[in-house]
Amino acid sequence: MNLHLNKSTIKSHSELQITGSKSESNRLLLLQALFPDIEIKNVSNSDDSQLMTKALASKSEVIDIHHAGTAMRFLTAFFATQDGRTLELTGSKRMKERPIKILVDALNQLGAEISYKEKDGFPPLIIKGKKITKNQVALEANVSSQYISALLLIASTLENGLELTLKGKITSVPYINMTLGLLNAIGVETVFENNTIFVLANGRQPTVKSHLTVESDWSSASYYYSIIALSNVGTTVTLSAYKKDSLQGDAALSNIYKSFGVYTTFDNHSVTLCKSKVVSPGG
After folding, report:
1. How many structural domains are present in the chain?
2. What is the extent of the structural domain holding 257?
3. Is 42 a member of any domain?
4. Cα angle 252, 21, 59; round to 5
5. Is the pLDDT assigned to residue 53 strictly greater than 80?
6. pLDDT, tens digit, for every residue of 199-221?
7. Which pLDDT belongs to residue 2?
8. How many angstroms separate the CA atoms of 87 and 73, rounded?
9. What is the structure's pLDDT at 226?
10. What is residue 204's predicted lDDT score, i.e. its pLDDT?
11. Of 90, 162, 181, 200, which has the highest C-beta tally within 10 A?
């Protein structure tokens, strides 16, 4: 097989719209379901986010999220709080092989009523939505951040909020901080001290900020950083929508690529990448 490489035809300046972060989108979609006054722009066009949107709008007694792992975890927590509603939450064959016992146990400790339809510890789940009044639960700190975020996202709508203790060394701080940052953005009060996270009850009151733009995915921006790094000095590309105080860990790209001669500027929810110098092979 022959591989043909052609000279780049990139313009000296381009402007591109990048789809919203899947991680932020799925969190905000769930918060929007809890607080309907929230309006969201630039939602991810990923399969996971589309499945999440469809599931949240569904009135069916059986909700199939196919292969969307984040949706399975977030929706398990969400539907556990929907007082009076009973449903089956299921997924693809592969999804039925992915454990969810840690999250189910935590929710049941808080007073939720979730059981397994087939294999213990795995989807599909039978969820009977209830009003949850207990507010203290503990998890091992090295579990998936999605379990932790699932609990945090519903916490402010619980009657007494939530006190979540993480036992051991925390391994997913960036994603936990992303969730807390989004909660703060809509007016939910949180405190993260040592290994304990407190989320104050907020009921279903109007939020502080009703219009939110999902930040675009920084992982997607990495490709454009590489293109600019390999381009001529002076080549620029502007990407929307990004912010300097990003909640995404991959935002570290703006510092990493300085070593490759790429300079980053932020302006009005966009980021401009510029090749400012030639970098020698030795750095």
Report:
1. 2
2. 13-18+216-275
3. yes
4. 155
5. yes
6. 998 766 656 667 889 999 999 99
7. 79
8. 15
9. 92
10. 65
11. 162
Q: What is the mean pLDDT of residues 159-186?
A: 93
Structural domain includes residue 281: no
Q: State which of 212, 235, 258 marks the end of a domain.
A: 212
Last residue of a domain, one of 157, 187, 212: 212
pLDDT digits (tens, 9 = 90+) for 114-135: 999 999 999 999 999 999 999 9
3-state secondary structure the chain: CCCCCCCCCCCCEEEEECCECHHHHHHHHHHHHHCCCCEEECCCCCHHHHHHHHHHHCCCCEEECCCCHHHHHHHHHHHHCCCCCEEEEECCCCHHHCCCHHHHHHHHHHCCEEEECCCCCCCCEEEECCCCCCCEEEEECCCCHHHHHHHHHHHCCCCCCEEEEEECCCCCHHHHHHHHHHHHHCCCCEEEECCEEEECCCCCCCCCCCEEECCECHHHHHHHHHHHHCCCCCCEEEEECCCCCCCCHHHHHHHHHHHHCEEEEEECCEEEEEECCCCCCCC
Q: Which two tokens stand for residue 169?
A: 């060394």
Asked if residue 282 has pLDDT above 60, the reply is no
- pLDDT band (50, 70, 90) for residue 278: low
46: domain CATH number is 3.65.10.10
**Is residue 271 domain-shared with residue 198, that is, in the same domain?**
no
How many CB atoms are located within 10 Å of the residue 179 CB?
Answer: 26
Task: For residue 3, tell me if it sits in a domain.
Answer: no
The answer to whether residue 154 is domain-embedded is yes
